[in-house]
Amino acid sequence: QLDFWLAPRGPGHPVDVRVPFPSLQPLKAHLEANGVSYSIMIEDVQALVDHERMEMLRGRRQLPLSTNTFDYATYHSLDEIYAFMDLLVAENPNLVSKIEIGRSTENRPLYVLKFSKGGTNRPAVWIDTGIHSREWVTQASGVWFAKKIVLDHENDRDLASLLDRMDIFLEIVTNPDGFVFTQTQNRMWRKTRSRHSGSACIGVDPNRNWDAGFGGPGASGNPCSETYHGPYANSEPEVKAIVDFVKNHGNIKAFVSIHSYSQLLLYPYGYTSTPVPDQQELHQISKEAVTALSSLYGTNYKYGSIITTIYQASGGTIDWTYNQGIKYSFTFELRDTGRYGFLLPAKQIVPTAQETWLALKVIMLHALDHLH
Amino acid sequence: DIDDVGHKYHLELVLEDVLDKDSTVNCTAEVLYHLGNKNLPPDVQFTIEGELKNADEADNIFYNQIKSLEKELVAENIPDSHGNVPPEMEPIRLLAWVASGYVIWQNSTENTKFQLAQIKHVKQVKRSDEYLEFDYRILLHEMVSQEIIPWQMTVLWHPQHSVQVTQDSRQPKHASE
């Protein structure tokens, strides 16, 4: 039951180990009997963890009273983001509504913001952020996009004409269990927090759990792996909720799933090297979108299909959505290219969101122009 | 493709100074990945066209700062969860970045892409000679598998000498993660 925090590496080098209470006396006796000196670094690890959690709760900012005083240039907790959503809806009831599309493994609500100027079941654009919880710039960008839509929906000609005919759906925290875990336990957590029988390891990669080439090369069958596809397609409630939503809606025309990092704009497929029938069109849109993105701050993006641009990945979101008939299916990998990686400084949130928004508009407007 | 030997890549790169984007230097390199034995690091040969910028002044400032500390330096989580790096820790982060480059090289194959994700812990080790020694615990992010791999490395440095990684080892992941 010993949990090594600094593994043995040879004579003369210290070893750090966390010892569960029942093993304390036997371990001490064993060390002393063998002439191994030791010192206690932390008397009670649990007390330390409890104290830190308390500090984090106490030091939390006062909740802002409006989306105009909300700080977009910093990372927020789940509660703060959910409160933001409610504020945004309250301030703009004629444009924004909040829909609960399901619940996570740990029973957290999965919320989607709907931006609509009316109509019934209009053709729509879907954007999701935060499906991989450690990719913090994505949830933060999602919050910014939500406010941006509200700010610009009348004065920006392109956005206004888009909303005249289409709705926008935005899921900001697509993996809330993972997100909370990155804030309380492990900043590098990627997957969901589900437990599946037969393994001590937790979590499924939500971007390998979709029914497109599920279980094939490009995902892992090992529950302890970061790319574990799960026991079966849509096993994860976070994924199933979106699948059900998309199928029930039936009129989604563009689907964008946002990740970080690497600075890439990708279209299907990831699970196979067979090009999609609409490859040329998607490639052209990507080129325009990336040009728009770079125009703001000079940020360089590469683009192409998932399999040719990064690696083979099966069971991915946009492979499934494309196969459902949603032609304009794209994935972004936002800033940066590895210097900070997942730990992108907060001051880069707004510039990242701003440039990405330009690319999103290209995609959304193209979908608008190509409605039947 | 070299029969019975491995795969050789010829690269033309531009090196860019992290601290001064306008300062660039051209570089050519040859990388040979060995067939068969995956424990052999790739061979790397390179030529830099021109000179790298002189960093003596910044090196000496950092060196003297550390030398004048009363107690050995200890720090953790660089950058922190929000991407913050206290200004005085920036050279410590850059040193880790260079040193992790060595670790990454030694553990790379054609199917890996490593990045330094975070310094979890760094501790200065007292020395009787003029070298600075730091014991780092870092997290490497491997892109293809998406794994976060804890790694320990001992780094030696002095302004007039190149960075050395005298010891490094992959660490076990925690049970809680």
From TrEMBL, chain A:
CDD domains: M14_CPA (cd03870)
Entry similarity comment: Belongs to the peptidase M14 family.
Catalysed reactions, semicolon-separated: Release of a C-terminal amino acid, but little or no action with -Asp, -Glu, -Arg, -Lys or -Pro
Subcellular location, record wording: Secreted
Record protein name field: Carboxypeptidase A1
InterPro entries, per database record: CARBOXYPEPT_ZN_1 (IPR057246), CARBOXYPEPT_ZN_2 (IPR057247), CPA_M14_CPD (IPR034248), M14A-like_propep (IPR036990), M14A_act_pep (IPR003146), Peptidase_M14 (IPR000834)
Domain Peptidase M14 span(s) in chain numbering: 74-367
Gene3D superfamilies referenced in this protein's UniProt entry, alphabetically: Metallocarboxypeptidase-like, Zn peptidases
EC identifiers of the protein: 3.4.17.1
Entries under PANTHER family matching the protein: CARBOXYPEPTIDASE A1, PROTEASE FAMILY M14 CARBOXYPEPTIDASE A,B
GO CC annotations on file: extracellular space
The keyword Disulfide bond is annotated on this UniProt entry: yes
Any single GO BP term: proteolysis
Superkingdom of source: Eukaryota
Entry keyword set: Carboxypeptidase, Disulfide bond, Hydrolase, Metal-binding, Metalloprotease, Protease, Secreted, Signal, Zinc, Zymogen
The keyword Metal-binding belongs to this UniProt entry's keyword annotation: yes
Top-level enzyme category: hydrolase
PROSITE patterns hit by this protein: CARBOXYPEPT_ZN_1, CARBOXYPEPT_ZN_2, PEPTIDASE_M14
Signal peptide stretch: none
Residues annotated as the enzyme's active site: E333 (proton donor/acceptor)
Cofactors that this protein relies on: Zn(2+)
A molecular function GO annotation: metallocarboxypeptidase activity
Pfam families reported for this sequence: Peptidase_M14, Propep_M14
TrEMBL record, chain B:
GO cellular component, one term: extracellular space
Molecular-function annotations in GO: metalloendopeptidase inhibitor activity
Cross-referenced InterPro entries: CYSTATIN_LXN, Cystatin_sf, Latexin
SUPFAM superfamilies per record: Cystatin/monellin
Keywords from the named record: Protease inhibitor, Repeat
Residue intervals of the Cystatin LXN-type domain: 1-57, 74-177
A Pfam family that the UniProt record links to this protein: LXN
UniProt key word DNA-binding: no
UniProt record similarity statement: Belongs to the protease inhibitor I47 (latexin) family.
Protein name: LXN protein
Organism: Mesembrinibis cayennensis
